[in-house]
Amino acid sequence: MITVDVAQELAAFLRTRRERLDPRDFGLPARRQARRTPGLRREEVAELAGISTDYVVRLEQARGLRPSADVVEALARALRLTPDERAYLFGLAQQHPRRADELATAAGPPLAQLVADLSPLPAMLMNHRYDILAWNSEMAKLLLDFGSLPPPKRNAMWLCLMHPETRDIYVDRERVVREGVAHLRTAWAAHPEDQALTDLIAECIARDEEFARLWAERDVKVNGRGRKIMRHPDVGVIAVHFETLTPLQDPDQLLVIYRAADAESRSALERLCAH
To answer: Which fold would CATH assign to domain 6-92?
Structure first.
C-alpha cells in the first residue's frame, strides 16, 4: 500500500522544481566552478524567496517544518511554479493561497461561451462576491438587462437590496437575502484581502437595515442548490430550481443555472423568452 509522507513529498517537490530551473533565466552570474547539481542552488532560491538558506535546507531535508502561507507564496514565485504546481505546494504545506491579484473580475472566453450555450436555460456566471461576470439572454429577460448597468453595480446582492426593478422580485425575499448574506460572510472569511468585497459589505450594512440585521447574526452557508419564486411584470409568478456549479480551474467562480420548477413556470419562461 502506498502512503503519503507529506514532509518527504514537500521536500522532493521543492528539490525537483529547483533543479529544473536554468540559472541563466534569472540573470545569475556565471561561476567558474561547475555546478554539482542542475538548476539553482539552495542559497539562490533562498535569496530569491527572501528566506534563509538554512530554512530551505531544512525543508528539502523533510525536517517536519510547516511553512507559512507567506513563505509558500515566496517559494512559489522564486521557483516560478505554474498555477497547478502552486496549488499543489500550498496543499502539501496545508495552507490556503492568498489570491488578491487573481480574483476574477471578468469571465474568461470559455466560461462566457458556456453560459451562452446553456440557452434556453437561464444562466449566469458570478465570482465569490456575487459580481455578475456573464449572462445569457434568458437570464437577462428573467431578472434584468445587466448590460444596462455600470460594471460596479452588476452584483446580485446589491441588486436584490437596492435596485428598484429587482428589490421586490422574489416572493420569498427574506430567505433569499438570508442565504445571500450567509454566502457573503463565508466568502469574506475566505478572502479577507478582498477590499472590494469588504466595501460591498460595508455599503450594504450602511444602506439596508435587513442586511445589517442578518449580518450581525453571523450565519454562514454556501447554498449550492434550491428553489426561488419570482414575480415577473410580464408573465407573472415563476418558480425555478437553481443549481450552482464551480469550475475546477476557476474555483472562485460560480455558474448558476435556473430550471423551471413546474409546468406553469415552464410555460411562463417560454413566453418570456419568445418576446
So the answer is: 434 Repressor (Amino-terminal Domain) (1.10.260)
